Amino acid sequence: MSLSRREFIQVMGIAAAGGMLLDAKGALAAPSAGALYDVPRYGNVHLLHFTDCHAQLTPVYFREPNVNLGVGQAVGRMPHLVGEQLLRHTGMKPGSPEAHAFTYLNFEQAAATYGKVGGFAHLSTLVKRMRASRPGAVLLDGGDTWQGSATALWTNGQDMVDACLELGVDVMTAHWEMTLGDKRVKEIVERDFKGKVDFVAQNIQTTDFGDPVFKPYVMKEMNGVQVAIIGQAFPYTPIANPRYMVPEWSFGIQEENMQKMVDECRAKGAKVVVVLSHNGMDVDLKMASRVRGIDAIMGGHTHDGMPAPVIVSNGGGKTLVTNAGSNSKFLGVLDFDVRDGAIQGFRYKLLPVFSNFLPADRDMTALVKKIRAPYEARLNEKLAMTQGTLYRRGNFNGTFDQLIVDALMDVKGADLAFSPGFRWGTSLLPDSPILMEHLMDQTATTYSYSTLTEMTGATIKNIMEDVADNLFNPDPYYQQGGDMVRVGGMSYAIEPNARMGARIQDMRLNGKLIDADKTYKVAGWAPVAEGATGEPVWEVVGKWLRDKKTVAPRKLNTPRLIGMDGNPGIALS
């Protein structure tokens, strides 16, 4: 990719503006798609991108994190900026719809003002609008699409497959899809997607002979330009999720093979090479610095809404690195101007999908209604009322996570509880009913067994140290992109910059230090070991909620942070 100095300055000006004048005069007084989503066509290669929707077919509330710590070289860099630090970095105006889309600031008030986000019917309207002005535009799905809701679980992912076909997805890669099992994934790819959607992943191979399981890339001709899209599935799927679900497939980053695929695409005439990635933002930034010839990485997994691309220099030129948030909340629009066999410039915008500002697409609305109809009674069961905001997102805890560990400890009679550091899960405003659908939004996996295990203090520490290294290892290639395990009942301190095995400190239960040799009863859920059994966690928490009827605001059990003073990725107030 080559940019003139004038072009580079112009592009960075667009990036600094965040890409949208959402707070333009009159926008809130008369919300309309025309006022908010007028994105003129640029160039002749057009890529639309969403990722990590986690099976959210209807509009939701979603609170962005107030803790997203960067370590090592990531300190103070996007995406590890939150709240006011993020606003200052991007030039967004406080109190604007854009500030609501990208930050947690004034969440309750802003959510009540601007309404819900996402929903496939509203996303579909935006996709059609962008495609109408962009001939040949390709829609990319970054994965984590077939998991995350009750209907996705109950239909074995079929609801999302049908919705994505209606949406017009052209190319897809994957992560949580694999928790449906290898046979189900292959069935969808070879039956539902055949001739319609290209499922690509250069880094999934057979464990015996190393043969590719899926196509590594696909070539598309767009307005006379050859465009290559290379797939990069989540590298750590067999570690972060149950290995027994994909026993004959290997994953990994596969950087050398990625370089080989890029070179192969260039040799076949590709003038634009894009990686559709589920690595996570920090991993993508490192990959962009090491692999030559990639023009853009359109990423997912870490749920980071990136208002503008990060431009990474490498041995072959420059690579744009983006990430398109989660929960069908955003649509990325990347336009390239390709002339004389080379990219002359680009434009990028990450458009928030405000359901109040975009009309619902009629055909998608009908499909979603049909999908949900058999399950409405179960989805709408009222379990309790919440007095406080419930959310999941942040490095250490969220109020919905706190609710889950509180329920597990009460029902299981445990000394402490663990809940996985999943980044998916919608939010609820104060004084709202907690429906079964909302609980399933937090817990719907194919292995959500609840557990009660006796563990020594030493084992508890080892588990927490392992998760902490997955999150805070200074080398992005050793990060798995989730958040810290949520802990109920036990206080602790954490030093993210410490060496592996020395980050977790001062573990206490009821004020007393955890004894390494003593045994404790630990409740949890979502074990990755084969053969695990137990009552589904939504049944455990559901019983607790029905008994409570009204849930008081949750007091977060967050760790004491060591060495994080001044880190712009944290705002506790």
UniProtKB/TrEMBL annotation:
<dbReference type="GO" id="GO:0030288">
    <property type="term" value="C:outer membrane-bounded periplasmic space"/>
</dbReference>
<keyword id="KW-0547">Nucleotide-binding</keyword>
<keyword id="KW-0378">Hydrolase</keyword>
<dbReference type="Pfam" id="PF02872">
    <property type="entry name" value="5_nucleotid_C"/>
</dbReference>
<dbReference type="InterPro" id="IPR030998">
    <property type="entry name" value="Thiosulf_SoxB"/>
</dbReference>
<dbReference type="GO" id="GO:0000166">
    <property type="term" value="F:nucleotide binding"/>
</dbReference>
<dbReference type="InterPro" id="IPR029052">
    <property type="entry name" value="Metallo-depent_PP-like"/>
</dbReference>
<dbReference type="InterPro" id="IPR006179">
    <property type="entry name" value="5_nucleotidase/apyrase"/>
</dbReference>
<protein>
    <submittedName>
        <fullName>Thiosulfohydrolase SoxB</fullName>
    </submittedName>
</protein>
<dbReference type="InterPro" id="IPR036907">
    <property type="entry name" value="5'-Nucleotdase_C_sf"/>
</dbReference>
<dbReference type="InterPro" id="IPR008334">
    <property type="entry name" value="5'-Nucleotdase_C"/>
</dbReference>
<dbReference type="InterPro" id="IPR006311">
    <property type="entry name" value="TAT_signal"/>
</dbReference>
<dbReference type="GO" id="GO:0009166">
    <property type="term" value="P:nucleotide catabolic process"/>
</dbReference>
<comment type="similarity">
    <text>Belongs to the 5'-nucleotidase family.</text>
</comment>
<dbReference type="GO" id="GO:0016787">
    <property type="term" value="F:hydrolase activity"/>
</dbReference>
<feature type="domain" description="5'-Nucleotidase C-terminal">
    <location>
        <begin position="397"/>
        <end position="534"/>
    </location>
</feature>
<dbReference type="InterPro" id="IPR041829">
    <property type="entry name" value="SoxB_N"/>
</dbReference>
